[in-house]
Amino acid sequence: MAEAVEVNRAALLEGLPHGFLGRRGGVSRGEVAGLNVGHGSGDDPALIAENRARAAAAVLAGARLVTVYQVHSPDCVAVGADPWSESERPHADALVTDRPGLLLGVLTADCAPVLLADREAGVVGAAHAGWKGAVGGVTDSTIAAMARLGARPERIVAAIGPCIAQASYEVDQAFFDRLGARDSGNARFFAAGRAGHHQFDLEGYVAARLAAAGVARVERLGLDTYAVPDRFFSFRRATHRGEAAYGRQISVIGLGAG
Question: CA–CA separation, 113 vs 121, rounded Å?
Fold first, then answer.
């Protein structure tokens, strides 16, 4: 019997089609075995297409999955009635829509996936927040784009899915200094590490950025991509193991068929 697609859900997004998926339930093999959806992984395109179809079907059967070409930017794009094709994906790291029947997807492999919704306005968003995009303001851009579609920050709820946890995310002194130069308050997102190094709380940083932008309710799933190899892909873990490739998981949200 084929392994079922694992869908992790957030209580704050209950009732909305959404899910933070991992590597379980896919058809890829080898180092990227499982539900690998990343075109840049070197995997067979046919297997990636099948995995993407399985991911969408596990959350909202019949919906069209829409993704972007992620570049660790703060940029967010709105998805209308006629989404771009997979080969024409814009360079961006977040998407918003008020159109039913679509699934917005972001890919991660340690970065933080963020799903957002304003139920009253009928607007949802998805953001890929690695440290660079998070510091650059990708969640701020997503909230602003949702507002242009009628959402209000105080009504938005957000959930942060599987990402590398503080205990697994060692950074050097230069990284610590870089974030400290932007805001001295950023020191609270670091714990002491080995000599000359620190442990960075990406999930906590992203949650704080959401709160600072006016999102009052933020849920953290607290799932560490690095520490659970049978459930999640991890770029850093693959690097530490000397693996030649790493997979990407997907997080999706939509509004239903309407």
Answer: 22
